[in-house]
């Protein structure tokens, strides 16, 4: 439940910045999706560390490094999936680009959930 709450807030941050950068400010799609994901990653770290997994091992350099390494892999997965939908399938409109963004977030989040609870925020 806690992972879902923090993850859900991260998704909202991700979508908010993605739409602001791409649709409101007229930015390019790939920088918008990557930057939005990076901003969400920062807010997610705080939520996971101090809310979801606060009962687990205290913050260490290794934990921080693992979080950011696995998050970077997740961002690469998310961005690659987004690229396939946006550029490969031509889903450029506001609704279509958000659908592609949503699918890419869901798939990358499954990976993140497994690695965060298994390797990053261990008991």
TrEMBL record:
One CC-aspect GO term: plasma membrane
Pfam families linked: GtrA_DPMS_TM
Transmembrane segments: 5-23, 29-52, 64-86, 102-120
Keywords noted in UniProt: Membrane, Transmembrane, Transmembrane helix
GO terms of biological process kind: polysaccharide biosynthetic process
Subcellular location: Membrane
InterPro entries: GtrA_CellWall_Glycosyl, GtrA_DPMS_TM
Residues of the GtrA/DPMS transmembrane domain: 2-121
Annotated membrane topology: Multi-pass membrane protein
Major localization class: membrane
Domain of life of the source: Bacteria
Family according to the record: Belongs to the GtrA family.
Name of this protein: GtrA/DPMS transmembrane domain-containing protein
Origin species: Streptomyces lacrimifluminis
